[in-house]
Amino acid sequence: MPLLEPKPEALRPGAARSASHDRVLDSRAAGTPEPLRGELTALLGPEKVLWKVSDLVKYASDASPYRFVPQVVVVPEDIDDLSAILSYAHGKGREVVFRAAGTSLNGQAQGEDILVDVRHHWTGIEVLDDGAQARIRPGTTVMRANATLARYGRLLGPDPASAIACTIGGVVANNASGMTAGTTRNSYRTVSSLTFVLPSGTVVDTADPAADELLAHAEPRLCEELLALKAEIEADAELTARIRAKYEIKNTNGYRLDAFLDGSTPVQILRGLMVGSEGTFGFISEVVFDTLPLDRKVSSALLFFPSLTAAAAAVPRFNEAGAIAVELMDGNTLRASVSVQGVPADWAELPKETAALLVEFRAPDEPGQEAYERAAAAAVKGLDLVAPVASVTNEFTRETKAISGYWKARKAFVTAVGGSRPSGTTLITEDFAVPPSQLADACESLLRLQAEHGFDAAVAGHAAHGNLHFLLAFDAAKPSDVDRYAAFMDDFCRLTVERFDGSLKAEHATGRNIAPFLELEWGPKATELMWRTKQVIDPDGVLAPRIVLDRDPKAHLRGLKTIPEVELIADPCIECGFCEPTCPSEDLTTTPRQRIVLRREMMRQPNGSPVETELLDAYGYDAVDTCAGDSTCKLACPVGIDTGAMMKDFRHQRHSPREERIAALTAKNFKAVEASARLAVAAADRIGDRLLETVTGLARKAVRPDLVPEWLPEIPGAAARKLPRTSRVGASAVYYPACVNRIFGGPDGHRGPSLPQAVVAVSARAGKPVWIPEDVAGTCCATIWHSKGYDEGNVVMANRIVEAAWGWTAGGRLPLVVDASSCTLGIAHEVVPYLTDENRELHRELSIVDSLIWAADELLPELTILRKTGSAVLHPTCSMQHLGDVDQLRAVAEACAEEVVVPDDAGCCAFAGDRGMLHKELTASATAKEAAEVNSREYDAYLSANRMCEIGMDRATGREYHSVLMELERATRP
C-alpha cells in the first residue's frame, strides 16, 4: 500500500442517519451475484461487465422519479455483443433494459435485472446527400448531431429541451419531439430508415430492399402475425378512425398503432412500431433521418401576460401567423429560472399569476423574416400585455444573445424549477396534450386541480401544439405524500381523458409512470391490441417488462425514489443528466450526476453498513481522484451545480493536517519551488524520458498516485530563465506570464519567439506595449492548490497574487493581462473565497483580462496581417468556456489562418494542470473523440491558449499545439 494512501473513512457522511426504506440492502454489497457475473464475464469479457455495487447504484437513478437497482450492467461494443446478451437472456429467462443518456422522465431506462449501457460505444454521425439525410448511431446526442448538420445548413426535426444530453436512440425510442417538432417533425415523421435488433437477435435494416424477404425467412411467424393484426385493425372502421384521431395531437402513450395503418409490409410496420416503443420491441442500432432546413433568420419575443389563461388564449394568433414555436411559461417557472445564468434578476419579482409566451419565427432569408415580423406585429396588436418588471420589453428581437437567453430560461423548466423544490423532495414531471383550441381551458383546470391537492403550480409547454408540462414535488419517504400524489394522478388522468380527450403523454412516452392509465386513454380494445403486439414481437417478455404495459393499477407508485439531503452545493440536483456529456470522466469512471447519486445512497445507508463501506472504497478513485475539477458540469447544469467544487472539497477532507502544512509551505516558498521545477525540466532533457518514467512510476507506487505526477514524453523543455525586458513607462497593460509559461517552454518543434516574447512583441506592434513586473517569480494564480483542495496553500497564494497585482496595476488603473486561460479564471474568480476582507476589496478594483480578449479586442484592430497559415484546428479549453472567450480564440485564429476548425467533439482535455500527469488515463479517455476527429485530416497549425492543455492535446493527438498568440505574432511579424 502507498505510504500516504487516503483513508476512505474521511469521506464517510457525518450526519446522523437512519436506514431509508429504499436503501440498497446489505445482501447487495458484493455486487452482481454468481453465476450471473461469471457467465456474462465469460460471454463478453471482464471490461464489458460492471458488477460492483457502486456500478449498480450509479446506474439505478436517472432523470425520472424512479429508482431500480439492476443486477448487472453490461457495456456492449457492437451488434454481436447485443445479440449475445439477448441470446443469454432468452436462455436464462432473464430481462433486459437498454439505457443510453438516462434523461427519460418516466423510468423507461431503468431495469431490475440486466441493464445494457448503449451510450459508450454507440456514437457517430455520417452525413448523406449533402446533408439531406444523416445516418446516426444511438448514443449520439441531439446537440452533437446538429453541430455536424449545421455545416450543411440542416438540422434534425426532433428538438427536445434535453438536446445537450439526450441521445438519438432515446429520442427515437420515445418519439420525443420538443419545442418545434409538433406532430410533423418528430421521429415518426422524419425517420427514413432504422436498423434494429429484435428480441430474438434478428437484425433488420429497413432500408435494405430485401429486408422483407430476409425477415420472412428468419421470422415467418412474426411476419404472419403482424399482417394479421394489420388486417384486423383495418377491418374495424371505428377503431381505425379512433387511431387516426389520437395522433392528430401529440401522443406518445402506448404503441404507435397507426404503424399498422401506415405500413404495408412487416418491415414497414416494424419501422413504425419501433418509434416510441421505449426499448420494449428491440434495440435501435442505427437511424437514418431525413433532415430539415436550418433557417438562420430568427425573430423572437418573450411576451408577458397577466395570467396563464390569458397567455394560452393568445396562442392561436401566433400559430396563424406562422410561428415555428410558441412556448408557455407560468410565473413560478419564470421566477425559478432566475437561477439560470443570463436570465434577468428582476424576474424574481414577477407576480405569481404572471405568464409568458416565447414566440419564435424562422425564415431562410431576409424577405421571409420581414414578412414574419409583419405578421407577428399584427398578432400582437390588441393583446393585453404587461410589463411588471423593468427588464420586460414585449418586443420582437433578432439579437442572438437575447434570444439565447429566452431559450435558456425555457429549456431550464424542469431543472430550474426542480432545483428550487424543497430539499428532500422527489420531482415528478408530467406531460400531456389537449387540442390546441382547448389549451386555455386545460390550463385553468390544471391550476385548479393542483391547488385542490396541495401542489404548487409550475407549468410550461409547447403551447402551439396544446402540449403542457407541469411539475410536482413531494416526499417519497412519507406515505401521506405518496397518497396525495396518487390521488392527484387519478384525478388528473380522468380530467385529461374524459374532459379533453387528450394524450396522457404527449412526448415523454408512457414509461412506468402512465402505464397503469393506458387503458383509460385508449380503451380496452386498442390496449389489448398493444398487449398482443408485444406478445408477437417479444413472446418471452425479455425486453423492458412493466414499461409501457403493466396491469398493476399502482405500478406508478412502485420504486419512487427518496432524495436524501447531501452537501449543500449538490442538494438541488434532480439527476437530469445534462452535465454528463461535458464531463471528462464520463467514459472512464463516473459523471457528476453519478457522483451525487452515489453520495445520496451513502446517506440512505445506516452508518457503517456493508454497502456504505463498499461505496466509500470505490468513491475515492471513481469520483474524487478522476474528477478533472474543470467545473464544466456547472456550465451545463441549468441550476449551476458545481460537482467539481464538491470533489475539491472532498480532496481537502482527505488531507491530513501535515499534508496541508506542507502544501502551505510550498506556497510560501513558491519562488524556490518554481526555480527548482524549471531546473528539473531542463535537466530532464539530458536524463531521458524512459528513466524519468521509471523513477516517477516507482515514486507513485511508494507514495501515492494522486500526489506524485508521472513523467510524460510530451512534457516540453524548460522556459528561458529570464523573461523579456519591458518598461513600465508608457505601458498599456501589465502582462502576467503564468507560472506554467515561466517553467515550461514551447513545443519542441517550435522555431520562433516564446509565448512571453510573442505577447510582448505583438502588443508593441499594435501600439499597446505591456510591462512584465520584475517580481512575478514566486507568484501564481493559486490553481495548483485550489484544484487539489489544499485550502491553507490556496489562502497563502490567493492573497499574495491579489496584493501583488494591485501594486503592479497601480491599484487597478492598468489591466492585468494573463497568458493562460485557466490562470485568468483563477485570478479573476476562483481566488475570491480565499481572500481576506481587505484583499477582496482590492480584488474588486482589478481588471483581469485573458490574453485572448486582449489580442482579439485590443490588438487585432491595430495590427496588419502579413501572412496566414492554411488551416488551423482549435482546442477551446474549459477555462475559456467559463470566461466566455471562445469566440475571441476563433477570432484571433481566423486572422491567422485561411481555414479554422473547432472539432464538434471538442471538450475538456482533463489535463487540469497536472491531473493528466497524475491520472493519464483520465486525459486519454477525455480526449479520445476529439483526438480522433483532429487526426482525421492534416492541419497546418494546432492552436489553443493554455500550456498544460496544449501538452494534454499533444499527448492525445501526437501533434504539437501552441498558443494562438504565438501564431498571431508570426502572422504580423515584419
What can be said about this structure in brief?
Helices cover 43% and strands 12% of the residues.
Runs in which pLDDT lies below 50 for 5 or more consecutive residues are none
Work out the strand percent.
Answer: 5-15%
- Give the tally of β-strands: 25
Strand adjacency order, main sheet: 12-14-13-16-17-15
> Please, what is the average pLDDT?
93
Structural class: alpha/beta
Question: Biggest β-sheet: count, sense, barrel?
Answer: 6 strands, antiparallel
Radius of gyration: 29 Å
Please report the number of helical segments: 39
Determine the fraction of residues in helical runs and give it as a percent range.
Answer: 40-55%
Report the end-to-end length measured between terminal Cα atoms.
59 Å
Describe how the helices and strands are arranged.
Blueprint: H1 36-44, E1 49-50, H2 53-58, E2 72-74, H3 79-92, E3 96-99, E4 114-117, E5 125-128, E6 133-136, H4 142-150, E7 154-155, H5 168-174, H6 187-190, E8 191-197, E9 203-205, H7 211-218, H8 220-234, H9 237-246, H10 259-262, H11 266-274, E10 283-290, E11 292-293, E12 297-305, H12 308-321, E13 325-330, H13 331-336, E14 355-363, H14 366-380, H15 400-411, H16 413-419, E15 426-433, H17 439-452, E16 459-462, E17 467-474, H18 479-499, H19 518-537, H20 592-604, H21 610-625, H22 632-636, H23 643-654, H24 657-668, H25 670-687, H26 689-702, E18 733-736, H27 739-743, H28 755-765, E19 770-771, H29 783-786, H30 791-808, E20 816-818, H31 821-830, H32 837-845, E21 848-850, H33 851-859, E22 869-874, H34 878-883, H35 886-896, E23 897-901, H36 915-918, H37 920-934, E24 941-944, H38 947-957, E25 961-963, H39 964-972
